[in-house]
Design brief:
The complex is a heterodimer. In chain A, strands 1-2-5-4-3-13 form a six-stranded antiparallel beta barrel. Chain A has a six-stranded antiparallel barrel with strand order 6-7-8-12-10-9. In chain A, a hairpin with a 4-residue loop joins strand 4 and strand 5. The C terminus of chain A is likely disordered. By secondary structure, chain A is an alpha+beta fold. Chain A is built from two helices and 13 strands, in the order H-H-E-E-E-E-E-E-E-E-E-E-E-E-E. By secondary structure, chain B is mainly alpha-helical. Helix content of chain B is 71%, strand content 0%. The C terminus of chain B is likely disordered. Classes of the chains: A alpha+beta, B mainly alpha. At the A-B interface, helix 1, helix 2 and strand 1 of A face helix 1, helix 2, helix 4, helix 5 and helix 6 of B.
């Protein structure tokens, strides 16, 4: 017959630690990442940042050496691809110049500031997530540099993520590929809106509410979400969408930002309050088009897709 | 001596976590990195007293939780379980890498799988990750390779040797 005395000391300690661990998980989840857990996290990150800086300074040559070795094999193919890209970009540049004039005129007409007018803070990626499951980056700028929670983070190609925690000297950025991230986007070509969801790694899932919408391979998706400035490039559609039992169109899209190799990023000094269209909420009968929560809740707190803004986007241009 | 070993173990866990977040940010063959902190827990749990090994697992897991976005305590549960398995099976193995290599591989796969399952239960959606198999298999493979260095290193740091007292002792 089983008795508690049958459990040896080691097993007893193991069970006690498991219970303690699960209790901590429960308490931390109930506090939604704030409270004691949040304080401890911020404190650890602040204490750990100098250690990471030191270790990074020592080990960077080793990482770079291996990185350069692996890059050598793909240099030829990269060269050819880049030549093609230069030719394409030159053509696009000519088209963009004429569009730019027209967009400026329209913006002036509508009184909308483009994302390019936002202040930004340049930062370097100091560290990555501590496990393969962490879709986060730690950057070397914190609240003392003006970085705040919820600010969007971009690289030269487009949206990379959003600041989720800040200490004085460093900030933690959750990548857009995190499975808890839902971003309202607009197809640049057609203006149709949908929701882009991260899947940890690889392509993201795009769901469109209009089942008759036209979605083709290569379509650029730009932000249409109150938490980000409108019009930042987010992803490109991988394949034409297909309707799923008549409720939504579903396909996949590749992030345009170089998420696996980002080194330098820009934090846009933007909070969702700036996305609020002044006076719109005051008008009865008009729905609010901007998420109205207080701005501190993370995507992980809710599975509800975000609502979309109705502001005009700046055609796919990253700031 | 006991105190010095404990301090050395803590320092090595912290350095392993720092290496994981910095050096292995760029050194990522096939876009994956080893689960270094877990490997350090496995290596040191082979030599520490049973309760010490469990506390090491819990503490290292807690540190990883504090550096990650996962709920506080999730990695602690996983690493404590890993340490417990090591404590239960360590007497079956000597310093024979033909046994230890697959053991480290299996334990890393088990630990990461446990994290994925628990993470999904607690709302982290880890099982929804399209690259899940790669994120489990490749770190386990790298851990098995690195075990050839880390396991003897832990033995050297703790000044210990492991000899099984009985072939079938659990």
């Amino acid at each position: 017959m089983w008795r508690p005395s049958n459990i040896d000391r080691t097993t007893g300690v193991f069970i006690a630690l498991l219970v303690l661990g699960l209790a901590l998980v429960t308490v931390d989840l109930r506090a939604s990442g704030a409270g004691l857990g949040g304080t401890l996290r911020d404190g650890t990150q602040a204490v750990f940042a100098p250690v990471e800086r030191g270790v990074a300074a020592i080990t960077r040559p080793v990482g770079d050496l291996f990185g350069n070795l692996s890059n050598m094999f793909s240099l030829g193919a990269d060269n050819e691809r880049l030549r093609q890209q230069v030719a394409d970009l030159q053509r696009q540049l000519q088209e963009t110049e004429s569009l730019k004039v027209r967009v400026s005129e329209l913006e002036a007409l509508l009184g909308i500031d483009p994302p390019g007018n936002l202040d930004s803070i340049s930062a370097q990626v100091l560290a990555v997530g501590v496990s393969e499951f962490d879709q986060v980056r730690v950057i070397d700028k914190g609240s003392s540099d003006g970085v705040g929670v919820d600010m969007p983070v971009v690289d030269e190609s487009g949206l990379v993520g959003r600041v989720v925690a800040v200490t004085d000297t460093v900030a933690r950025v959750r990548l857009i590929t995190d499975p808890t991230m839902h971003i309202a986007v607009r197809i640049e070509r057609t203006g149709e809106t949908g929701v882009l969801t991260g899947r940890g790694s690889g392509p993201m899932v795009l769901e469109l509410f209009n089942t008759d919408a036209s979605v083709i391979q290569g379509d650029l998706l730009v932000t249409a979400d109150g938490r980000f400035p409108a019009g930042i490039a987010v992803a490109r559609v991988r394949e034409a969408a297909r309707a799923e039992v008549g409720f939504s169109l579903r396909t996949t899209a590749n992030p345009v930002g170089g998420l696996t190799r980002i080194d330098f990023v820009k934090v846009l000094v933007f909070t969702r309050d700036e996305a609020t269209v002044t006076g719109l909420e005051d008008q009865s009968g008009l729905p609010s088009t901007v998420p109205t929560d207080n701005g501190t809740q993370s995507e992980g707190d809710s599975d509800q897709p975000p609502s979309t803004t109705t502001s005009t986007t700046l055609g796919g241009s990253a700031p | 001596v006991k105190y010095r070993r404990a301090v050395a173990t803590v320092v090595i866990v912290i350095v392993a976590a720092a290496l994981q977040t910095t050096m292995f940010a760029t050194l990522r063959p096939f876009d994956a990195a080893p689960a270094l902190v877990m490997l350090v827990v496995i290596a040191f749990a082979r030599h520490l007293p049973p309760e010490g090994a469990l506390l090491l697992g819990f503490g290292a897991g807690l540190l990883q939780d504090l550096l990650a976005e996962s709920p506080l305590g999730l990695w602690a549960v996983v690493f404590t379980t890993v340490a417990f398995v090591v404590v239960r099976f360590r007497d079956r193995m000597e310093d024979d890498f033909s046994l230890l290599g697959p053991f480290v591989f299996g334990l890393t796969v088990g630990g990461l799988t446990l994290f994925s399952v628990l993470g999904t239960i607690f709302g982290e959606k880890t099982l929804a990750d399209v690259g899940l198999i790669k994120k489990i298999a490749l770190p386990a493979l790298y851990n098995m390779i690195l075990a050839a260095i880390i396991l003897p290193f832990a033995t050297w740091v703790l000044g210990a040797t492991r000899r099984r007292s009985s072939p079938f002792q659990l």
